[in-house]
């Protein structure tokens, strides 16, 4: 900053801008309140149906969020401008005071341009007017004035330039709309940027050769700033995509003789978590720098990153930094499409992911798996971003992602030290599928059912197709998650299981053959079987109390048909696993557990019915096991007697004017429907 620019600076224009931004903040605060308390509140109370559920509600939600983001960003801009203006005025006053003090010692400061200046005598004694006394000064006085002015100009320059930098990063965070970043003053924003540069440069310069003390400070600072938008972007862009991969590869490789991994091995998981959160936040910035970062990271995915003792692919490294956090949807899909394309070219990806002489021992420090399978990290990231997961599972170009991850993909054991574990990549894929089909994050304990979109339905249809085609080879890791998906779509599942024929005109109907096969595969696992049946019990009760067909008996008969459908699926499952009926040895189902969030809510009266029905159903299941009950070619249907009786009782309770029907005749009718549904399902399965 030039001396004269600060000394004679007039801040009227800046003051006007600050006043304008103050008014903007005030107006946006009012608009945000109106959007939150009016628009959004009304949207949450509304009973959305049809197109409104997928278009209007989403628009309202996004619009309300934009007002909140706009208010936060405007407030940050105002705060930074005001704080910078106050600092510059303070530095101007300090400069004026220093120059005035210098004049008292016959010293003046002159601007020489380009940020430079000179300190000279104000009046030379030889040219002073007659009788004029010129103050004396020493070289020390000259040096002191020079250093003081230099300090003030440097501080003012830093204030001005850091404000410029933070404001540019702030407004670049969102290409369209507002970022929602919030800062109380320039100092907090500038500190975030400064710390990001310092830590990224520490990693670039020292990598895994940093001292344990430097490592501790890195973890501590990342934890403090991991949610800061300016920090996230500046850290990611300063470190760069290749720098990120090189660092994680070197840190994971214990063969370089360094003592950091040995001294801080227990803290590597915390660093992995913090890096993941920082990078995830950075990808949500729409700045040109971050878009370039994302493209470069995807391009590096199939590159081999070499360390002293191993070589690994970029996908393997980056995927281990995607297990925590909410990554940008577009980045996840670019990355996911590229990973699937690479694996399809490999044909046997496990041969590549386990390659290296020797292979990298471990790249994941947050779980049991070694982190060699990059699909695990990607699927975990997708499960945290339901919209991205929906797009991924519906993508058919450049390849059909769902077919690859649900049916065709070869897998391998990424926890060779544990011989009794499931396959982590498939477990993560099941969670991602759950997010894609339901629109809910399975790791969010406060998630509640949301209105299904056309994309969610497409995921459901495609997953039924590929998993049913796999038949008995459907991975066991998918059973519990698929049961939860079906419970979340219980209206459509109940409607289809109770259908009398295929009906292309019914938008709720699924493919009955596919549904039966997947229900069979789900029923091979006791807990998954329990989730599905428990959830459909709730749906049948909700249907009895809430649906109003032209003939009320329809809800009774549909319940019977669905019970028969489920019983046939269970029989088929036991028939498949007759040599290993381990889950049937004892009834150990303990409730919906984590799946309860995915179950559509029922009314109070229906909930009482759900509780009663659940008890009767549990009695039937326990009796089945105690008595080793099996289906006898449809001749005897006793396994669900209590359940069917309770459904008949609930129907009578919900239909108080059921003239001409009593408990006996209604129970007989629902039993007949169960026989019919059982036989119909046998036909679908090909058992005649």
List the helices and strands and how they pair.
Layout: H1 3-7, H2 12-45, H3 51-103, E1 107-113, E2 116-121, H4 139-172, H5 186-206, H6 212-225, H7 229-239, H8 241-252, H9 260-264, H10 268-283, H11 288-299, E3 304-306, E4 311-313, H12 314-319, H13 329-346, H14 349-353, H15 374-383, H16 386-394, H17 401-408, H18 424-438, H19 454-470, H20 479-488, H21 490-497, H22 512-522, H23 526-546, H24 553-576, H25 604-626, H26 641-654, H27 663-685
Antiparallel strand pairs: 1-2, 3-4
Helix pairs in contact: 2-3, 3-4, 4-5, 5-6, 5-7, 6-10, 7-10, 11-13, 13-15, 13-16, 15-18, 16-18, 16-19, 17-19, 18-19, 18-20, 19-22, 20-21, 20-22, 20-23, 21-23, 21-24, 22-24, 23-24, 23-25, 23-26, 24-26, 24-27, 25-26, 26-27
């Amino acid at each position: 900053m030039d001396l004269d620019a600060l000394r004679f600076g007039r801040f009227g224009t800046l003051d006007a801008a600050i006043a304008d931004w103050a008014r903007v903040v005030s107006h946006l605060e009012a608009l945000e309140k109106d959007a939150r308390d009016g628009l959004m509140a009304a949207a949450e109370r509304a009973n959305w149906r049809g197109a409104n559920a997928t278009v209007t509600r989403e628009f309202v939600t996004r619009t309300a969020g934009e007002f909140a983001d706009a208010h936060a960003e405007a407030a940050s801009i105002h705060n930074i401008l005001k704080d910078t203006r106050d600092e510059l005025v303070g530095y101007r006053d300090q400069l004026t005071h220093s120059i005035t003090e210098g004049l008292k010692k016959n010293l003046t400061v002159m601007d020489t341009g380009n940020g430079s200046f000179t300190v000279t005598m104000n009046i030379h004694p030889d040219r002073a007017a007659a009788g004029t006394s010129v103050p004396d000064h020493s070289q020390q006085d000259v040096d002191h004035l020079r250093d003081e002015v230099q300090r003030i100009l440097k501080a003012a320059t830093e204030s001005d330039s850091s404000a410029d930098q933070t404001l540019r990063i702030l407004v670049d965070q969102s290409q369209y709309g507002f970022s929602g970043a919030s800062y109380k003053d320039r100092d907090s924003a500038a500190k975030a940027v400064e710390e990001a540069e310092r830590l990224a440069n520490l990693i670039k310069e020292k990598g895994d050769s940093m001292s344990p003390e430097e490592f501790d400070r890195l973890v501590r600072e990342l934890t403090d700033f991991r949610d800061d938008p300016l920090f996230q972007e500046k850290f990611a862009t300063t470190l760069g995509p290749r720098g990120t991969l090189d660092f994680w590869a070197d840190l994971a490789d214990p063969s370089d003789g360094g003592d950091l991994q040995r001294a801080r091995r227990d803290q590597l998981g915390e660093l992995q978590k913090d890096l993941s959160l920082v990078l995830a936040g950075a990808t949500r910035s729409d700045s040109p720098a971050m878009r370039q970062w994302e493209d470069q990271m995807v391009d590096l995915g199939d590159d081999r990153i070499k360390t002293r003792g191993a070589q690994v692919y970029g996908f393997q490294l980056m995927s281990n930094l995607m297990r925590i956090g909410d990554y940008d949807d577009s980045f996840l899909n670019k990355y996911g499409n590229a990973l699937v394309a690479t694996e399809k070219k490999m044909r046997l990806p496990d041969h590549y992911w386990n390659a290296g002489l020797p292979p990298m021992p471990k790249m994941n420090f947050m779980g049991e798996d070694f982190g060699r399978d990059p699909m695990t990290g990607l699927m975990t990231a997708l499960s945290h971003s339901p919209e991205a997961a929906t797009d991924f599972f519906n993508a058919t170009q450049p390849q059909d992602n769902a077919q690859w991850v649900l049916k065709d993909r070869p897998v391998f054991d990424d926890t060779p030290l544990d011989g009794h574990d499931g396959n982590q990549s498939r477990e993560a894929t099941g969670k991602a599928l759950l997010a894609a089909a339901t629109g809910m994050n399975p790791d969010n304990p406060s998630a509640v059912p949301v209105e299904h979109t056309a994309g969610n339905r497409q995921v459901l249809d495609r997953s039924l197709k590929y998993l049913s085609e796999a038949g008995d080879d459907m991975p066991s890791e998918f059973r519990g998650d698929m049961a939860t998906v079906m419970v979340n779509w219980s209206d459509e599942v109940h409607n289809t299981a109770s259908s009398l024929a295929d009906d292309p005109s019914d938008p709720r109907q699924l493919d009955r053959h596919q549904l039966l096969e997947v229900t069979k595969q789900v029923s091979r696992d006791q807990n998954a079987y329990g989730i599905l049946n428990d959830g459909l019990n709730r749906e049948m009760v909700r249907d009895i109390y809430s649906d109003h067909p032209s003939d009320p008996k329809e809800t009774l008969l549909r319940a019977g048909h669905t019970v028969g459908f489920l019983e046939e699926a269970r029989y088929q499952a036991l028939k498949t696993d007759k040599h290993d009926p381990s889950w049937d040895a004892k009834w150990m189902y303990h409730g919906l557990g984590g799946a309860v969030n995915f179950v559509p809510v029922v009314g109070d009266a229906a909930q009482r019915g759900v509780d009663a029905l659940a008890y009767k159903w549990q009695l039937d299941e326990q009796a089945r096991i105690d008595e080793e009950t099996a289906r006898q070619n449809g001749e005897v249907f006793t396994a669900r007697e209590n359940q069917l009786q309770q459904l008949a009782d609930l129907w009578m309770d919900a239909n108080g004017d059921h003239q001409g029907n009593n408990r006996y005749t209604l129970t007989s009718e629902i039993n007949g429907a169960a026989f019919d549904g059982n036989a119909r399902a046998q036909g679908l399965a090909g058992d005649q």
